[in-house]
Amino acid sequence: MRPTVISSDQDQFQLLQEMASIDKQLYTVKNCKKGDYIYLPDERSDKVFFLKKGRVTTGTFSDEGKIMAKGMVLAGSFFGELGLIGEEVRDDFSITKDEAEVWIFALADIRRILRNRPSLYMHLIGSIGHRLMKAEKRLESMVFKNSRTRIVEFLHNLGEEQGQRVGYETLVRNFFTHQEIADLTGTSRQTVTTTLNELRNQNIITFNRRRLLIRDLSDLYKAAC
User: Fold this and answer.
1) What is the spatial distance between Cα 181 and Cα 189, in angstroms, rounded to a whole number?
2) Element (H, E) at 21
3) Are 114 and 12 in contact (CB under 8 A)?
4) 172: left (phi over 0), alpha (psi -120 to 50) or beta
5) CA 20 to 30 Å from 162, out of 1, 5, 187, 213?
6) Closest by Cα among 162, 170, 136 to 77
7) 169-173/27-32 β-pairing
8) pLDDT at 138
C-alpha cells in the first residue's frame, strides 16, 4: 500500500518558484488557523492551492453527513488542482490541521502559463496522476487488508517518505494523532491505539504526540505481514 499522506515534493516547490518568478502577483497568500476550511463541496474548481506551511486534510462527506478522510497534504505540495483536468465543481473539502500558510493561484492564470510551458504542465499533471494512484491503492487496501495491516503499512510508508534517518532508526516529526491515523486508514481510534502500543511493546517503534521513531524500517515492514 502506498501512503495516504500526500508527501512534500521538492520538485513541486521548484516548479512553484519558477511560476512565481514569471509574475510576482500570480498568487495571493492566506494565513489560516487550525480548523479553517480552504474549500468546500459544491464550490467552483477555479483555484489551485500550494501549502507553504502546515498540514491540510482532504476528505468528503457521506450522504449521512459523516466525514471520510482522503489524504493529508504536507507543506511543499499542491492540492485542489483537479480543475486542470476538467473538474468544474468540487466534491470534496480541505481543512487545516495546524496553523497554515496557503498560496492561492487562479486556475485561469495557471492555465495561461502552462500553455506556454509544456514542461510545467507535464509536471503538474504527473503530480495529479500520482495522487490518483495513491487513492486507488488506498481503496484496494481498504477492501483487501485488515485494520492492523493498514495501520502498520501507513507507518512504514510515512517513515519512508517523511522520515529522517538517524543511524538505523527513522525519525518522523509532527506525528499524527491517533484519530488522524484512524481517519486516514479507515480504522477506529481504539484499533490505532492498540496497534501502536503493540508495536511499542515489541520495541519496533516509540512515539509521543510530536514524533514517531521507527527502530528499523525492515522490522516494521515485517510486522505488517
Assistant:
1) 8
2) helix 10-22
3) no
4) beta
5) 187
6) 162
7) unpaired
8) 74
Whole-number average pLDDT of the chain: 84
d(CA 171, CA 184): 20
Residue partners of 85: CB distance under 8 A and separation at least 6? 125, 128
Which residues of the chain are modeled with pLDDT < 50? 1-10
E strands in the chain: 5-6, 27-32, 37-39, 47-53, 55-61, 67-74, 77-79, 93-96, 100-106, 164-166, 169-173, 205-207, 211-214
* Residue 71: burial class (beta carbons within 10 Å; 0-12, 13-18, 19+): buried
- Summarize pLDDT for 101-113 with one digit per residue, the tens: 999 999 998 888 7
Burial-class residue 164 by CB neighbours within 10 Å (0-12, 13-18, 19+): exposed
Predicted TM-score (pTM) of the model is 0.76
Alpha-carbon distance 35 to 210, whole Å? Answer: 19
